[in-house]
Structure formats: structure tokens, C-alpha cells
Amino acid sequence: MRWLWAGTNKGAELLIPDNTDADTALSRTTHLAIGAHQDDLEIGVIHAIGVCYDTPDKWFTGVTVTNGSGSPRAGKYADFTDEQMMAVRKQEQRDAAIIGKYSAQFQLDFPSKDIKSGKDGSKAKKHDELAQEIYQILLKTQPEVLYVHNPFDKHETHSAITRATIEAVRMLPPEQQPKQLLGYEVWRGLDWMADDKKIILDVSEYIPLQQQLVDCFDSQTTGGKDYTRATVGRQADHATFRESHCVDTATHASYMVNMTSLMTDHNLTLEKFTSDYTNAFAETIRKRNEQYQLHDIKPGTQMARAAANQLFEQINLAHHSRT
Ligand SMILES: [Zn+2]
């Protein structure tokens, strides 16, 4: 059932796949994820979608913020107008919500240019409306876990939504806040983070569902971007390259960053939060290079080459004298 969501934008909507009433669908929500574009949630939070799909008393609600108007188009969509493209992308998101048995799916219909800050840091035209709308959704859903784009993501629209979400969740009284705020991967992986700092989620059993869901977004993959393959591949990479000295316990894993402190500590800035992680990463690299400085790399010289050639000749001679 499709409801008009009395949001900022007249094209905003609320879909409830199992046709229950809106109050029930929102209040039963346990996992709420906010994403910029149609397909971001299916790429980034399959663990939440899968857990809710499999568990009767857990419900996933998705919030897709933008209207898809500026999206790239190719193949059969090459000549689509902005209006047609928006309609296609909206329908793709509805299809995913139905297949994934979401409790509810919001599409807030913001043009992404209206929520991105200016290069000089000036506030976006609709930044406040977005933060207030997210706050209203949080009030109505009061999830246990809230997911948003991680603050290291390189897509500017994603960053805008991370910022607005932190602002919105801080408006809630502490007793109505989620237990956890987690940042998920789309336009930048989190494998560089220290292993004891990242949240590692086994998504192996949800891969068939995820493939079905990401495949809904045909308009995005038609241009030659195989997001389904890339998403599943990144998660396979995480499972295998996570730890060099033990066998894989999962075939696929998702990484998340715990952003709960950004929700509870109102004085913590995004700048401080992110630099704690990036400084720790820089320190790891610095220490490793310091450890290997003993064998510091010498500039290449004629003498070094001659010594290497001589050694190789000796080995060759020894080898031939054996045969
Ligand atoms: Zn996106």
C-alpha cells in the first residue's frame, strides 16, 4: 500500500509492502536505515535486511532521501527525461522493498543538489528540512539500530545525509534514541580501519537475497556498472582478506563503523570522530615503516648492481657444476 508521506517534497511517499496501517508499520521497526539513493540500502545494509527477513519480530524500514533526478542513464534508459528516470528509480526501490519484506520504505524525493553544502561550507537550501524530516521518522519508528552512510564515504550526497542524520538523532531525548548508530559502506570500503575498531558482520547466508535486491536496480546496472557483482565481491574480499592467519569463517562479510558516540556525545564533531580513525591508520603505517627502516632501501648504484650480478653468476655456476 502506498501512502502519501506528508514530507517536505510533494513527491514523497511511504510504501508498506504488507498493507498494514502506517502506525503499526513504523512502530514495529527495529532496524532503520537511511540512504541517499535508490539501491544504497540494498548495497550497504544487507545484514539488517536479512536479519529482519528471517526473524518474525524484527522489522526493517528503509529511508531513501533523493529523487534520482540527476542519475546517469544508458542503454534503454539513454533518452529518458529526468521525470521518467525518477519514476523508474522509485519503482525499482518499491520492488526491492517488496521482495525484501521491509516493514516500510520511505522515498523522501529531495533533489540531491538541494541537500549538498556549498564548497565554502555554506548550508544547503534544504538541509534543515531534511534533518527535521529524519527526526520525524525517528520519532515514529524509534528503532533499536540506526544505519547511515559512514563518514568516510566519498560521495558528497552521502556525506550530506550522514550530517543531517546525526543532527536529527541528537534531537531525540536519550530514552528514545537507538541503542546503536552504525555507518555502512557504499562509496568507500572500511577495510583500512583497525580490525579491533570495525564491526564485522557475517552476511554469507544473505547473499542470494542481496543479489535479488540489487538486481532490482536495472537502470543503474544497465550503463555497465555491475553493482550486484561488485557488492558481493567486496563482501567476499572482506571475509577472506580480513585475517591472514586463519581460515574463513564466513564467505561474505560487511564492515561497519560504530558511530554511536556521535549520537550520544553532542560535543563530538565529525572532524574529531573521523580524524581519530585516520590518525590511528597513519600511525600503523608509520610504525611498520619504522620497523623496516633497519633494512632501509638504498639508492640503486653501479656497485649494488655489480654485487647482485656477481651473486647470481655464482649461483648459476654452482647449479651447473651439480648437473
Ligand atoms: Zn548512493
Kindly describe this structure.
By secondary structure, the chain is α/β, with parallel strands linked by helices. Helices cover 45% and strands 14% of the residues. Strands 1-2-5-4-3-6-7-9-8 form a nine-stranded mixed β-sheet, sandwiched between helices. Helix 5 (127-141) crosses helix 6 and helix 7 runs antiparallel to helix 9 (227-241). It is elongated, with a radius of gyration of 24 Å. The site of zinc ion has 6 residues, from loops.
Looking at the overall shape, the CATH architecture is: 3-Layer(aba) Sandwich
Distance between the termini: 82 Å
Bound molecules: zinc ion
- Low-confidence sequence ranges: none
User: Could you say which structural class the secondary elements and strand pairing correspond to?
Assistant: alpha/beta
- Major sheet: order of its strands? 1-2-5-4-3-6-7-9-8
- How big a fraction of the residues is strand? 5-15%
Number of DSSP-assigned strands: 9
Radius of gyration of CA atoms, rounded to a whole number: 24 Å
Q: DSSP helix count?
A: 12
Order of helices and strands: EEHEHHEHEHEHEEHHHEHHH
Total domain units: 1
Helix content: 40-55%
What is the C-level CATH assignment?
Alpha Beta
Can you tell me the CATH superfamily? Answer: LmbE-like
User: Biggest β-sheet: count, sense, barrel?
Assistant: 9 strands, mixed
Give the overall silhouette.
Answer: elongated
Average predicted confidence as pLDDT: 92
The fold-level CATH name is Rossmann fold
